[in-house]
Fold:
Amino acid sequence: MLMYVGRKLVSGLVLFITVTFVTFVLVFSNGEKSVRNNLGELATDEQVARRVAQLNLDQPVLVQYVKWLGDLLTGTLGKSFNSGEEVVTLLGSRITVTLSIIFLALLFTSLLSVSIGVLSAVKGGWIDRSLQFIAGSAVALPSFLVAIALMFLFAIALPVFPATGYMPFSVSPDGWAASLVLPVSALVIHMVASSAQQFRGAMVDTLKQDYIRTLRSRGLSERAVVLRHALRNAAAPGLTILSVQTIGLVGGAVVIEQVFALSGVGQFTITASLAGDLPSVMGVVVFGTLLVLVVNIVADVLNAWINPKVRLS
Amino acid sequence: MSDAVSHQVTPQSDAPVAGRALWRRVLSNPVGFVTVLLLILALGFGLAAPWLAPFDPNLLRLEVTNDGPFQGDFLLGGDNTGRDILSRLMFATRSTIMACLVVLVVSSVLGGTTGLIAGYFGGRLDDLADWVSNVFLALPGIVLLIVLYTVIGPNIMVAMAVYGVLLAPSYFRLVRSSVKSIRNELYVDAARVAGLTDGRIVARHILRAVRGPIIVHSSFVVASGIGIQSALEFLGLGDPSKPSLGGMLQDAFANIYLNRVAVVWPVLLIGVSTLCLVLLGNVIRDALQSSANRPTTLAPSVVRRLRAAAVSGSEAPAAAVKGDRPSLLRVRDLAVAYPDSTTTAKAVVHGVDLTVERGEIHGLVGESGSGKSQVALSILGILPPEAVILRGAIEFQGEDLLAAPKRVRAVRGRRIGYVPQEPLSNLDPAFTIGQQLTYGLRAVKDVSRRDAREQLLELLDSVGIRDCARVFDLYPHQVSGGMAQRVLIAGALAGDPELIIADEPTTALDVTVQADVLDLLRNLQQERELGMVIVTHNLGVVADICDKVSVMQSGRIVECGNADDLFTSPEHEYTQMLLSSTLDGAEMRKPLTVGSEA
Structure:
């Protein structure tokens, strides 16, 4: 088990270094252009050159990456080209918004996908067919489109929820919840559509297994067969589905924040990219990759915990 | 990115529906027809923009700023700077079509060729390509695209090409797995032996087989391309000088309190086209999969009709009672069918009669596919959900189990036990042996957890498991097949049943273990005076332990009698054939050793 977790951690680390290296090389490949972009069109060549030298952008990319990685180990991501503030501080002040959205969306997606998947797989018939059709259609719609539609309906036409803005939990829990209902719903609708279908598939496959039939033959109630045995065995593919979904969720959250004007990591990413603020951009890459890795490792560990074959190996 | 991947279709090795037949099938589906029509309209709407757009998309007319639709020259009104919404929509659609082409070409060519090479040649190359594709799939695509804006700048076509690269792994996986499964097919070997070059084999056999899944996948890829492109433009990362759906949406959205209707047009175009693509993809996927390998549960009305139409095919006397006590089990005129289309079903068991008395072992013999397992599963009410019992009765001690689903649930595990065929696949891998036996026992008997453990340890001991306490806490993957079969027998006995249904209880076991398990079954049967139905294709098993035998052929019982009589003087020619083919003319061997042949 420890070996297993260790292996997952090492492969996660390799993935982290690969991703940050590739993006770093791409992003820093043309430091001069970014500086020019950042300083504006009026900057003279001399100003640009001075700034490039000041930021060490004239060094080989590989050297810059090693230095960046070293800094990362000491807990700093460098200073923003824009404001000169530490990127870690800038990210830190925005992270709660994004994590709130992602965590809530993940929670509701899991709950809904499992319930819908189980219902669909067990009941079959028209319930199954209509759920599948609705899911098949909902998955087609990009989540920002759903977000716009939700805002249109529930913030503008029927002003039930605030259209924009974020309320910190510490200020007002009610306000916090109200400000997150629409953004989280938009993400959940899109994600549930896809993961409920997949979880239904996992349940259907599990319910076809021989041991399910044998358990039934022993007089177990249908409830115990489905909720204890089938659900437990479908959990492993379910976790894989969810960890793949998380990757999409990180991207979805970025766009959704823009729709609802929530000042989280997503908005920060867009501002940084538009301004050519390279250290901030790399900070976002670190955040996104780490988030995906953490969710994947948690899913792997849960998977091992559920699956005795892995746990006992 | 994950969405496009999650829709993947598993490639099928059997000959897919091809070419024209496929399109006919797609278009005859109403959803398929409507989506194709709408997509063609959208294509025309965009491609014809340079000729049919009424105005220059960048023409400014300040007087119509934020005008609603149908008010002046501008059919759909003006946007927030007074430009013609209709013309801009047409040009934006055109650019979306181009962007989708870019994504499609880049991702399919890159992913397809690497998938072909990796899948066909395998080895290190394959491992490397697979690793790279996994890295790509672990990236949040849109975040990366936003980040790369610092390098790419406001050039949506380049961004879409990068997105194509990010999506390439989805094609890679699809093609690689199909190629891997086909590479080892006999006909590909035959082609290689026949001297065809790798290139010809790939072109002729492999590309044909992956064509269908690729078409389906492409429709999802294009849909996600439209989504990503409009999202990027909506975020302001597109080229502001050119009309785009996402850009128009961004403008209209910023202006939502002044001109609500303007939001509707781009939303409709993006939403309807992605919706159509995904629905069309599903329709094509359904059309590719022949209905035969998708068992669909029939609608209740169809089941009622089929049952009403089923006429008895047996002349067995109704409810003959032996003495005052009814038989332990009497199956009368049982017919079971499976759906072969949405409205019809094919019978696999045609009116079977079977009687089992207390303390009697009844062998149900026949080759695979003769319907013997179907009879066994019917008695327990554990047929697959799509199976339909057309007619007949299953009387357990005189009570018809088929009359109410409640009855069969009441006897299952309590009065009828089931010993399955494959020992390892019949134990739930997620629970220890002790846990799953306890759940079973406590479902049928009101005992405490501790008492259940006591009883089960005793039971495990009686089925010949040494070291019961240790086995109790093992997981199924930690025990051997023979041990697992003993556990399953213990599971069947836990509720003290009067009847055991054993479906090929020795087939999956090692030859040496087979005899032990048969011994065990016979001893338990004698100790507890059980009735038993043993389903088997092995006449050795029958000779070994059965009192009575029924021979099944194509869903019918062709001969039934005492085991001794049947072996010495078989009446039906099928039975004669079975006997001669199995024993190969040799003299009948003595019991016990016979069980070990097969």
About this structure: Residues 152 and 386 of chain B are 55 Å apart (CA to CA). Chain B has 23 helices and ten strands. The domain at 413-546 of chain B is CATH 3.40.50.300 (Rossmann fold).
